[in-house]
């Protein structure tokens, strides 16, 4: 299938981290945040939840920009059969960090790419593992004082003072940050083979 004459790429996300990551691929893109209500139940299947939310965002923007190639993404943290989304306040962020302390958790990201003009629909799910150092109250407070955590799944960002809290990680680092770039390269190659 030939690529549209003008390949227009839209990121359906207000996340500054996703913008920064996508910019690393060197492909021009616009940002159009999707006005949707995400599914965020703590007992949800994390793989299905992030895929659903990514598709919800991509579909919403794609309807309004049918000729554009639209990327939707959603990331969550999963530990002990519980989904940890964005904390509602600092007390919840503190509780999340205590829960992650000294343990390994999984970070799931769902990516959905849509282009209505030719029916393009691509969906991917990526998982990475993160192991936290044992954290005492002083380290948690230092972390919360230096990083804005309320807009981050699990109440932390590996790229911001990760040395303070993270022991190790396995799998895609960019997935943990919020947009798996290796998968994005493959997806964009499929979405625009000649571009």
Any descriptors?
seven-stranded mixed sheet, elongated, 195 residues, 7 helices, Maf protein, alpha/beta
Tell me what the structure shows:
By secondary structure, this protein is an alpha/beta fold. The chain has a single domain (9-191), classed as Alpha-Beta Complex (Maf protein), CATH 3.90.950.10. Helices cover 35% and strands 25% of the residues. Strands 1, 2, 3, 4, 5, 6 and 7 form a seven-stranded mixed β-sheet that branches. Strand 5 (104-115) and strand 6 form a beta hairpin.
CATH architecture: Alpha-Beta Complex
Any idea what the radius of gyration is?
17 Å
Helix content: 25-40%
Q: Give the helix/strand class.
A: alpha/beta
Concise account of the structure shown:
The chain is α/β, with parallel strands linked by helices and 195 residues long. The protein has helices at residues 16-23, 46-64, 90-100, 137-146, 162-165, 173-177, 181-191; strands at residues 9-11, 30-31, 69-79, 82-84, 104-115, 120-132, 166-170.
